[in-house]
Amino acid sequence: MNRNISIALEHFKKAGTETLINPIHGNIGDVLQSFKGKQDVIFLDAVRTYYVDWWRYIDDILVPGGLLLVDNTLFPNPDDLIPFFSIIRACGMYEEVLVPIGKGISLFYKKN
Length: 112
Description:
4 helices
């Protein structure tokens, strides 16, 4: 198991939320394309150039009222995310907040 995954799982356990979390390990592109079901939260921290290609899967998987979190939105290279964020904004189904903590994280709430 990846060290970062192990650390995350330990944090979930300490928070008492391990039974609420369904961590999925694997290539995110493959996981998104084959995923069956819906998710309340999707956290993206991967190769940004693929985000646009993954959008249709992400939007389909995320439930209304769900949250999409996109990491590292302020640094490095925030311009890399312009095409992806433009698609999200254009669909009109999401509210957005930028949290300027660390390298920045953008939260997109999918409207009901």
